[in-house]
Amino acid sequence: MNLLLLRAEERLSSNIARVTDPRRLRHLHEVHRARRGDTLTVGIEEGGIGRATITGLTGHAVELALDELECAPPPPLPVHLLLALPRPRMLARTLENIAALGAKELTLLHTARVEKSFWQSPELSESRIRDHLVLGLEQARDTRLPRVGMAPRFRPFVEDELPALIEGRRALLAHPGQSVACPYRLPPGESVTLMIGPEGGFVDYEVERLQAAGFEGVHLGERILRVETAVVALLSRLF
Amino acid sequence: MNLLLLRAEERLSSNIARVTDPRRLRHLHEVHRARRGDTLTVGIEEGGIGRATITGLTGHAVELALDELECAPPPPLPVHLLLALPRPRMLARTLENIAALGAKELTLLHTARVEKSFWQSPELSESRIRDHLVLGLEQARDTRLPRVGMAPRFRPFVEDELPALIEGRRALLAHPGQSVACPYRLPPGESVTLMIGPEGGFVDYEVERLQAAGFEGVHLGERILRVETAVVALLSRLF
């Protein structure tokens, strides 16, 4: 936790905040070994970043005196990620990585090789998704939560929603076996819609359908990577 | 498991192999739902890759008829990774990622912010390290195991071993706050020694010492990444 991310309601006045949830309290006690008088980096959700001093610390609450929180969070990546829904454990780490790397738009979608049962996972609840995203923001010292949408049906999504998502942007389809390697370092300001398949990849029909819709297929080399690894590899190569 | 990696002793003759260990048997049964007559991709440790047909399958053994295993494994990355020893759970995933991405030389080293207890972890046993590396190779369809060395004392390592490791190579020190961004896509054939710090980073003395030894400091932007994420981000950006 390189930044303590405060929800708006945890800020009691412009320069006082109180945190009471067990996860962050435990982290402050056990990992930071925090004491009254210590300073740490804090950020307000969707807002600025600055320093705070611990003015009170018990097993039930931490009270903080906030400096001006006037540093802007790091710039977001200009990408909308379209990710075939990964298996629940992989989803958790992938959400953390996506938030840490600075992507702000994510749509989880169904494809032929996504197991239907994944859509029933408790990991897809709003609060669990939020928890994982917050871990990524705390790690990377960011305050802006990614927005996460769901597209549980492939064809309606491709027909009805995709055209608007790729309009005026570069559309990349990461898929092993494509003839073009994923580019390095896109020109600053170029916006991208990046689609990443499930374990086992897209089926041929999906690749054809997406290429017809305007996606360029790109590969990351001969090596097949896990989804959580591929997301990091693609984002850090493109941006 | 995109490749079944066979140890030399599991190959009973040029075209017959038998696998009996519980982990891979369970994976073949439960994930692949393998049946007699199915074909799958196999590789011989440190050797070639090809297809095999399942000729026998019980709860205790899988027997395989091997085709010619004449495909070469994917090319290795020209990098020697020097990694401050991560906490055990993070080490496991990092080893998997390193193997999947194709790095073949790894030295785990002690630095000021590595907790001494990490060196006592059972995850550092030869067999546990090997297990994690094999998972990465199985994922990426590679057959060549990375070599893993240990440097449990920083100064003697820097003084006695480092000069030979960076001789004739580019030496990069990944550390937040450096003035130069990590380069993208090194010229083909350029060999790199890449040093990555622990959670909390290197201390100033270490950065100075390594820069004096010839390392260029590079950063990955404002965002602080977990070690396992940073390793993937750095390797996929550099190569």
TrEMBL record, chains A, B:
Every Ribosomal RNA small subunit methyltransferase E methyltransferase domain range: 74-238
Keywords for the protein's UniProt record, in alphabetical order: Cytoplasm, Methyltransferase, rRNA processing, S-adenosyl-L-methionine, Transferase
Domain of life: Bacteria
GO BP, sorted A to Z: rRNA base methylation
InterPro entries per UniProt: Alpha/beta_knot_MTases, RsmE, RsmE_MTase_dom, tRNA_m1G_MTases_N
Catalytic reactions of this protein: uridine(1498) in 16S rRNA + S-adenosyl-L-methionine = N(3)-methyluridine(1498) in 16S rRNA + S-adenosyl-L-homocysteine + H(+)
Family membership noted in the UniProt record: Belongs to the RNA methyltransferase RsmE family.
Protein name: Ribosomal RNA small subunit methyltransferase E
